[in-house]
Write a structure and sequence with these properties.
Elements lengths: L2 H8 L1 H18 L4 E3 L2 E3 L2 H11 L2 H19 L4 H22 L4 H28 L2 H26 L4 H9 L1
Antiparallel strand pairs: 1-2
Helix pairs in contact: 1-2, 2-3, 2-4, 3-4, 3-5, 3-7, 4-5, 5-6, 6-7
Length: about 180
């Protein structure tokens, strides 16, 4: 049993509380944006990647997929199923890489995970925009901005988890 799964089974109330807190942060961060050229920058990608680096794949899916779904449901429902699938898959991939890819080198595993997560995010939302809005041109127009937003979330999460010490704190707290 992995340490992340052990935390969920040994401390289910703590695990559920933390997953719910991250999910609420995801919903809140998807409710407002920072206007930038080409669209709006939402900070929920940073919350999703941070939670995925810390939590097990189930918790990561709840935070990423269900949290993004709820954020869209409350504020902009058109892409809510795209968000569920894209952010859910992204969060699971980041979590699996962060915890299992390089067990002795967590930074490397997390880095591979967030980079894979950026690809999943960009491809998922590009395909989703094409499907939801029936317009591939709109998806292509938003592609550079989508890459920026996903990359920004990945960088912020890596900075929070490793140089800022959130991952070290998490490891001590969940031990």
């Amino acid at each position: 049993m992995s340490p992340e799964t052990a935390f969920r089974t040994k401390h289910p109330t703590k695990w559920l509380t933390i997953a719910a807190m991250f999910m609420a942060m995801n919903v809140v961060m998807s409710s407002f944006s920072i206007p930038v050229p080409g669209g709006h920058l939402y900070l929920n990608d940073a919350v999703i990647c941070t939670a995925a680096i810390l939590l097990d794949p189930l918790g990561a899916f709840l935070v990423g997929g269900v949290g993004a779904f709820l954020g869209d449901f409350f504020f902009y429902p058109a892409p809510m199923f795209v968000s569920l699938a894209t952010h859910g898959l992204q969060a699971v991939a980041v979590s699996l890489c962060a915890h299992r890819l390089f067990p002795k080198h967590r930074v490397r595993g997390a880095l591979v995970g967030v980079l894979l997560g950026v690809v999943i995010n960009v491809v998922g939302y590009s395909l989703g925009r094409t499907f939801v809005y029936a317009d591939a041109a709109a998806a292509l127009l938003k592609l550079p901005f989508q890459i920026f937003q996903a990359g920004f979330g990945a960088v912020v999460s890596m900075l929070l988890c490793f140089p800022a010490g959130l991952r070290a704190f998490w490891d001590k707290w969940t031990a």
